[in-house]
Amino acid sequence: MPEPDSSVLARRTDIIAAMRAIVPASGAVIAEEDALRPYECDGLMAYRQLPMIVVLPENTAQIAAILKYCHQNKIRVVPRGAGTGLSGGALPMADAITISMMKFNRVLDIDWDNRACVVQPGVTNLGITRAVEHRDFYYAPDPSSQIACSIGGNIAENSGGVHCLKYGLTTNNVLGLEMVTIEGDILRIGGKALDSAGYDLMGIITGSEGLLGIVTEITVRILRKPETARAMLLGFPDNQAGGDCVAKIIANGIIPGGLEMMDAPAIRATEDFVHAGYPLDVESLLLVELDGPAIEVDHLIERVGDIAHQCGAVYSRISETEEERALFWSGRKNAFPAIGRMSPDYICMDGTIPRGRLSDVLTGMQVFSQRHGLRVANVFHAGDGNLHPLIMFDANQPGELERAEAFGADILKLCVEVGGCLSGEHGIGIEKRDLMPEMFSEDDMKHQERLKLAFDEDQLLNPGKVFPVLHGCGELKTLHARSVANKFPDIPRF
């Protein structure tokens, strides 16, 4: 992480006073060490750092005033949502103000005609569905942490969930944003319309991990609940057969509402924890949900069953009631805490690969497991190739955290090697920051940095995240046309 700025630390008392003037509510500025402790990390708990101070603003005007003050006084800022992120994106800094958005927790408007919902960033993911379900609507992206994670954090990381295969990630379900820049300017981007004119700034901001500004209001798309939804459990004798079945389902033009896969260690841990009715004598398990009109769902269940049989399925079970379908999914949603019962610590990785390489990558993980002497369990969004390996270790044992980190790095390098990428939905943060060169060339990285500096020239917003080394604005100003011309000689120059 960047070294703390001693001149900022020397002004801490003045900064606290300034923040209390901007946000005068009792308890809105936290400066005492014990009270700061809950903010020292996010869901990646292996790394901890007490923030200089924490501020809990209540409205957009206060956010704008805080950021304007920080810009004028060259003070770093770390935005924070619910703290459920798994890549260290909300890791504080010793010389930075952590801005918690958890007082921004209201549903502002529900527009049934335009199928849109306007919410503040501190509203939980599940809270949006709860606000609209009485009229049979819901919000589609559903991370496993949806009961706790905030929609603002989902924007920062472009979160997905078990139903993102058919209904898209966060970026596919966001219609509009309000964002405050580091200078304190308030921007409105998009709205309730299906598309907006001009550059796709929402596409840039969604997944930007707090590096470009602080989002203060979000307009999301809400959907009608499908007429029917049924889930299938399909068990296979090995991961190869399970992976082949995933690829063949998609190749046959079937896009399930959800298509998840678990390996044997994850199946056993989850069943022991949730008792969802998972079979314990299979090596891989697919959870397939099909939704839509009842006649279509019945037809697709039959087709998926035939494909599974051709791939060597040894177990099949179909939900008959809504309660049974929810039970099937409760196992998958609780897979992470289930693994937590098996090990003092674990790191939940996040990488994406082509569907056809599932079995190759799972085989590679077993090789890495032997190499590093650590166990791994796998639960993942198989339909879109988003892996979530859970590496188990004991941080109290010397060297195990370092081995877990090396194990995770090997997995992510393999993901890139087979044509995938470093993250599907958890973001880069600090966890994968130093692996960015595995995927991007130096020129690629510099172009991304130029975009960052266009929004935040002084690098005050969430520094130390995403980029292994962030160059200064002066270093990145010149784009050498000669080198571009050499790469693309057929493009006319003027």
From TrEMBL:
InterPro entries named among the record's database cross-references: FAD-bd_oxidored_4_C, FAD-bd_PCMH, FAD-bd_PCMH-like_sf, FAD-bd_PCMH_sub2, FAD-linked_Oxase-like_C, FAD-linked_OxidoTrans_Type4, Oxid_FAD_bind_N, Vanillyl_alc_oxidase_C-sub2
Keywords: FAD, Flavoprotein, Oxidoreductase
A family per Pfam: FAD_binding_4
GO molecular-function terms, A-Z: FAD binding; oxidoreductase activity
Gene3D superfamilies according to UniProt: 3.30.465.10, 3.30.70.2740, Vanillyl-alcohol Oxidase, Chain A, domain 4
Superkingdom to which the source organism belongs: Bacteria
Cofactor requirements of the protein: FAD
SUPFAM superfamilies: FAD-binding/transporter-associated domain-like, FAD-linked oxidases, C-terminal domain
Residue ranges of coiled coil: none
Domain FAD-binding PCMH-type, chain residue ranges per copy: 47-225
Protein known as: Glycolate oxidase subunit GlcD
Source organism of this protein record: Thalassospira mesophila
